[in-house]
Write a structure and sequence with these properties.
The complex is a heterodimer of chains A (628) and B (489).
Chain A: E1 6-11, H1 15-26, E2 31-35, E3 49-51, H2 55-65, H3 69-75, E4 77-83, E5 93-98, H4 100-112, E6 117-121, E7 124-130, E8 133-139, E9 144-152, E10 161-164, E11 167-170, H5 182-188, E12 193-200, E13 203-205, E14 215-217, E15 241-245, H6 248-256, H7 279-285, E16 293-298, E17 305-309, H8 317-324, E18 335-337, E19 340-347, E20 364-366, H9 376-395, H10 408-419, H11 443-454, H12 459-481, E21 483-484, H13 488-496, E22 506-507, H14 508-512, H15 533-544, H16 546-563, H17 581-590, H18 595-600, H19 606-624
Parallel strand pairs in A: 1-2, 1-9, 2-6, 9-20
Antiparallel strand pairs in A: 3-5, 4-5, 7-8, 8-9, 10-11, 10-19, 12-19, 13-17, 13-18, 14-15, 15-16, 16-17, 21-22
Helix pairs in contact in A: 1-9, 2-9, 2-11, 6-8, 11-12, 12-15
Chain B: E1 23-26, E2 33-41, H1 45-50, E3 64-71, E4 78-87, E5 98-105, H2 107-119, E6 123-124, H3 129-136, H4 142-161, H5 169-194, H6 205-227, H7 230-233, E7 236-242, H8 248-257, E8 265-266, E9 274-280, E10 283-289, H9 299-313, E11 317-323, H10 330-337, E12 344-349, H11 358-371, H12 378-387, E13 389-391, H13 398-414, H14 425-446, H15 451-469, H16 476-484
Parallel strand pairs in B: 1-6, 7-10, 7-11, 11-12, 12-13
Antiparallel strand pairs in B: 1-2, 2-5, 3-4, 4-5, 8-9, 9-10
The chains are: A alpha+beta (628), B alpha/beta (489).
Chain lengths: 628, 489
Amino acid sequence: MSGFDFDVIVVGAGHAGIEACLAPARLGLKTAIVTTNIDRIGYMSCNPSIGGLAKGHMVREIDVLGGEMGLAADATCIQYKRLNSGKGPAVRGTRVQSDKHKYSAYMCDRLRNEPALSIIKGEVKKLILNKSCCEGVVLSDGSQLRARAVIITTGTFMNAVMHFGLRQVPGGRIGDDSTVGISNQLAEFGFSILRLKTGTPARLDKDSIDWSKTTAQYGDEKVFPFSFRSPKVLPLPQIACYLSRTTAKTHQIIRDNLHLSPMYSGIIEGIGPRYCPSIEDKIVRFADRDSHQTFLEPEGLNTNSIYLQGISTSLPESVQDLFLRTMPGLENVKILKYGYAVEYDFIEPTQIWHRLETRNIGRLFLAGQINGTSGYEEAAAQGFIAGVNAAHLVLGRPEFVLGRDQAYIGVLIDDLITKGTLEPYRMFTSRAEHRLALREDNTIERLKIDSERIGILSKTDQDKSTEIVNARSELYININETKIYPNQETLFKLAAIPTSALTKSVSLADLLRRAEVNVFHLQSFGIEFFNDPLIFEPVEIAIKYEGYIKRQNELIAQAKKFEELLLPLDLLYSDIRGLSREEVEKLCRVRPRTLGQAQRISGVNPSAIQAIMVFLKSKKSRQEAGFV
Amino acid sequence: MGYGGAQEQDKHKVKGFKDNETICAVSTPPGFGGIAVIRISGPQSFEISRKIVHFLPEEPETHKIYFGTLNSFIEKTAIDEVLVSTFHQGKSYSGEETVEISCHGSPAITQWILQELVSAGARIADRGEFSYRAFINGKIDLVQAEGVLELVESQSKRAIQQGLRQLKGGLSLKLKNIQSDLLYVLANIEAAIDFSTEDIEVLNKETLFARTKRAEETLGILLSTYEHGRLLIEGLQVVLFGAPNVGKSSLFNLLLEEARSIVTEIPGTTRDVVESILLLDGVRVAFFDTAGIRESGDSVEKIGVQKSRESQSKADVIFFLFDGSRLFSSADVEILRGLDLKKVLILGNKIDLFLESEDQRRNKLKAVLKKSDLFLNQNELDLFVQKKVLFISTKENKSREIVLNSLREHLTNNQLEDEAVISQARHFENLSRAADFIKQGNEAISHGADAEFVALDFKAALICIQETLGERFDDQIMDFVFKQFCIGK
């Protein structure tokens, strides 16, 4: 292959790296993944869980498109929860606790069994750059690996520093070195590189905890696996998590030792996530609260390690020893690993395209925390998109980009590229303006066509998803087309539900829209629905919330007009009359691909959008008239 | 996909996307005329017009004129007898479905009709928007497009100047309150959705409902001020005051002369006070010429003077004229004493008769006024003389602009300072929309709708409010969430 060792090289084997290497490998491209530590492929560096609100949505999206995360999470799930199950259909989200070691082993196994994929142990020191193109990587031993496309997924490891109190240790995670070299090289190439901070709590020894002082929290009995390809029954035994709290004493100790916190003594410059503050942050910012809850989460079935959710800290070990022991159940706790903060470089994401290729260097893709995100799911989503696009680049196929009205993944990437981020970016349902359309239950319908276009899923899997969609469709039509009439028999059935009588004939869909009626009630009217929630739940939602869904679809249709108006990348904004200098500057920096994206750049006013539209239109008619 | 398609349930009409909306505006020049034409353009033109044009057939033909009575959608009364022309999509000036209503040419009627149309779902067109749409739809050519570009350009400059400054203090304060109520409610709703597993206490439904109800009510009150807005209904009342022979009538004629074509003289209710109306930037300004004031034994004249004094009480602005070629006399001071100084603008007339610099004139006037006890202190006097005194000559045309500019300034700066009143059609339209969304949201709450559906409406309302305030919607809800709740697992 003419001087290239690989088609695609992926640097880093975290959650982004895994999807980034599997996608091209499964499309038959010769792919390599380079990692310094093969034991930590797909390692859960922080909390041992996958999913959550909006995040669970993304895991399902990755799954339908052909990614691995959902299957791995289902296979290693030790507690399943559907969050917001009591709320509306668009904001229900799946979250599982995984056995982190099994998760890692599962992923490692998947990678090893991928025929087109090589796993290479090594540290990448440099990128091989030829003009403005990346042609491979140089390892620390000096060896060169040449590739047609390179994807960097180094997570929190770039120039990373860990903080234990005022003591600093270079490294991105306990036991792993930081990655030095790449970010300096990128900076030299003109990339703007900023710093972020994140933190992790202590890990505790299970046998040293007095569990009687904690409250057990169990998962759900009803399970809807992430992957439509997973078995409907979870393979691993399910366990509980345990609830404890901080006390007034905990807060006192933390307050007394704030001067030892690198955050409060000004050593850490990076910005941490507001949605995931350290315990010292919580105590300072919400001084009136005398207690914060925490979950004690087992990190696996065969490990003694307990994750202390919500108590991330960078206070010195000695202070952690003190304050942890003031919490109920932890009076004599043995600490396996102390909490710490980590500061790392990230590349301002406005410097990459939607396909996750960088703007300055061709054939170089970035995915995951290096783009300023946080979370395994956000990382995996980007890894997948980068992997597919790297493959498409090699194969000469068009870029693959998801819309904001199609997937949370689309929202994630468009937000990063259009707005950039100042804190580690986490997905929330509220970030999606078309939230009602982006539900967990309709993931297959949203992404089926794209998934087939990519072609990672096997024929069997594609047939399976077709079967699901057809079954839903049939049930939907059935419920909409079956009419009931106000006769004796109907009245009797309605009274049994119970719901009010009919005055005229209605469809079963009309009946189902009544608040007190659910899909099970329709059985008495002869509707057969296989008793499979995977089939009937989405149909019930589509009918019950039809009015709202329709309204959301209308908004999407309206937005489409702007999303479909492509802006030439070489558009000279300074030539457009009616734009302010600030607007020209911002538009030049982001170089939006559509008028819709231009609209989302903060500081670009509606009148500017009108001006651009007029400009393009008049340019076009000028060309048509033969002026240019 | 077989399912997911829907029918019926049209109660949640989608608004919010500029180019798909139906717009309306008066297309004839402002003021009184034989007739005025109101143009409605956009995909829902027929549907919206039909709410007041009851005689419009189910499927109107293109280029057809219908005659009938326009009925109020809001008050169920007749508005005017009108001719209505209909144009199908692709066959109108703008290229869109269009309705043109020819009504009688009075601003009161056209304003009323516009208001009805806005209530029925249209919005007031931006400057040049009909042409903009015509251009986008390929109805006008390149040369014409240049003109459109200019309009868009001026539009964006205006947008930059817009924002808070344009809103009167009281109104923006009220809107800020509504905004913060909505942010508060949305922050609670969103926190409950996105952070439901966290140990946070979001407020209960009743407390939130109280807030959104309050927002609905406040907005309702604000919107009703538009209907009764003094500026649009009554306009501005300006009384010309002063001693005899200082040039009041000349000023009156000067002010109204040039605008003769758009002015209708309305005879005064008495022989002594003459009223005439001028439209200034779309605002109705009524001028009252009064009898000259002097102490007199003549009983007929006394009655006239009495009327003059009365007319000042209902005035918004009093033009106090004196003969600027002479000194401000003690008689002038005495008349001034009887007036509400806050409303007074002193006009020194006849400056053509006596050459002097403006500073000299001002200083002389200041010296006279200083001797009176009309001002509490020097500062107040200085400010008054600086801001509230103009020197003019009714023989010179430019004086007309000087006087009218002072009125314009008054309209933008002083008018309705302490009251929260909506005076602009744009604000009215934006806020009506916000009110609709809040109402829908409140209905959704009372029907027990799930949080994400309720949030949809309140978020739409918030965006409308922020647009009116000249702010842009951008993640303020999440900022509020993080400020308010301790989140972090």
